[in-house]
Design a protein that fits this description.
Length: 336
C-alpha cells in the first residue's frame, strides 16, 4: 500500500510516498530555517505563507521521485495536529483537495504519532510494545507504545520542552537559531563538567520533565558573570547545559523502562538526532541489556515520511478521516 503524506505543522513543508509503512519511496522537505533565523525563531504567519508557496511543489516532487502519479497512490495522509494552526491548515487543505480529486481515502495523522513511527522506517524489525522518548522543539514526552496507534503518555514536560530550552539558551549565549544543532556543535569544544547546572525532579510524577529551571540557571549564570566582570566561555556553558538536559532525558527513560519492564527503547523527534543524547542513551541501554532504536537524522526532524508510516497503521486499524477533517493545534496524543 502506497500512501502520499503531507507535513506542514511548523516550518518544514514536506511530502513523501511511503510503502506499507516501512519503505520510503520519496521524502521531500522544503525548510524555512534560513528565513526564520533572521527573527530568532519561527514566525507563524511567515511559516503559513511559505507553506502555501511550497506545498504543491513538494507534492509534485515526491510523486515524481517515487515514479508515480496521484492516481497511483492508495491514500492521502496529512498532519492535522498539534502544531501552528495556520501552518496545519495549509497541509490539511491540500491533502483534502488531493484526496477528493483522486477519490482516495483521507487519513489525518497526529504529529507525535508520526515522530514515533519514524522508527519503523529505519528499523524494519521494530514492533510494539516499546517505550519511546519523544523530544522535539515543542514536545518532550515519555510514551508507552502498546501497539500500533495505542499510546499512553507516561511523562511529559511541565513547562519548556527540551528543544525550546535549547533554542532559548542558544539565543542567550549568542549562537542564534536553530539552537539544538548550534549547541551540539559548540559543545564539542567545551567541558560538560565546567558548570553544575540543576537537574529538575517532579515529586508527584518521577517521569515528568521540567527544563525551565536549567534554562533560568543558565541565564542567571550569564548575568552573574556580567555583573562580576568574569569571562564567559560559551562552549563550556553550552556543554554543561546540554549535559544537564541529556542526563534528565536518559535517567527518566531508563527508570521508566526498569519500572515497567521494557527492554526495547526508542528515540523520536528533532532533539533525538543529538549525538550526545544518542551516545548516552546507548551506553545506558547497553549496561542493562536493553535494545535502543532511533531514526536516521533526516527522519528525526519534521518530515512527511514519518506521517506516511503512521498513516499506514491508522489505515490498517480502520482510522480514516472524512471531509470535515480540520487543524487541531493542541491535539493530544491518543485523541481523535
Amino acid at each position: 500500500m502506497r500512501i502520499l503524506a503531507i507535513e506542514s505543522s511548523c516550518d518544514e513543508t514536506a511530502a513523501a510516498v511511503v510503502e506499507d509503512g516501512r519503505k520510503v519511496l520519496s521524502n521531500i522537505i522544503s525548510s524555512q530555517i534560513d528565513i526564520h533565523k533572521l527573527y530568532g525563531g519561527v514566525v507563524p504567519e511567515i511559516a503559513s505563507r511559505k507553506h502555501i508557496e511550497k506545498v504543491t511543489q513538494v507534492v509534485d516532487e515526491a510523486l515524481q521521485e517515487a515514479g508515480m502519479g496521484l492516481p497511483d497512490v492508495d491514500a492521502v495522509a496529512v498532519t492535522y495536529g498539534p502544531g501552528l494552526v495556520g501552518a496545519l491548515l495549509v497541509g490539511v487543505s491540500a491533502a483534502k483537495a488531493l484526496a477528493f480529486a483522486a477519490k482516495k481515502p483521507l487519513i489525518g495523522v497526529h504529529h507525535i504519532e508520526g515522530h514515533i513511527s519514524a522508527n519503523y522506517l529505519t528499523a524494519p524489525d521494530l514492533e510494539p510494545p516499546f517505550l519511546c522518548l519523544v523530544v522535539s522543539g515543542g514536545h518532550t514526552n515519555l510514551v508507552i507504545v502498546r501497539d500500533y496507534g495505542d499510546y499512553e503518555v507516561l511523562g511529559k514536560t511541565r513547562d519548556d520542552a527540551a528543544g525550546e530550552a535549547f533554542d532559548k539558551v542558544a539565543r542567550a549565549i549568542g549562537l542564534g537559531y536553530p539552537g539544538g544543532p548550534k549547541i551540539q556543535k559548540i559543545s564539542e569544544l567545551g567541558n560538560p563538567d565546567a558548570i553544575a547546572f540543576p537537574r529538575a525532579k517532579i515529586d508527584d510524577n518521577p517521569f515528568d520533565f521540567s527544563f525551565s529551571g536549567v534554562k533560568s540557571a543558565v541565564l542567571n549564570y550569564l548575568n552573574s558573570c556580567e555583573m562580576k566582570g568574569e569571562t564567559v566561555v560559551p562552549a563550556d556553558v553550552a556543554a554543561s547545559f546540554q549535559a544537564a538536559v541529556v542526563d534528565v532525558l536518559v535517567s527518566h527513560t531508563i527508570e521508566g523502562a526498569k519500572q515497567l519492564g521494557f527492554t526495547k527503547l526508542a528515540l523520536a523527534g528533532g532533539v533525538a538526532s543529538n549525538a550526545v543524547l544518542r551516545a548516552e542513551m546507548k551506553k545506558a541501554c547497553e549496561r542493562r541489556g536493553y535494545t535502543l532504536y532511533y531514526p536516521d537524522p533526516i527522519l528525526c526532524t519534521d518530515n512527511a515520511a514519518m506521517i506516511g508510516a503512521a498513516a499506514y497503521y491508522d489505515y490498517r486499524n480502520g482510522l480514516l478521516s472524512d471531509w470535515s477533517l480540520n487543524a487541531v493545534p493542541n491535539l493530544k496524543l491518543g485523541e481523535r
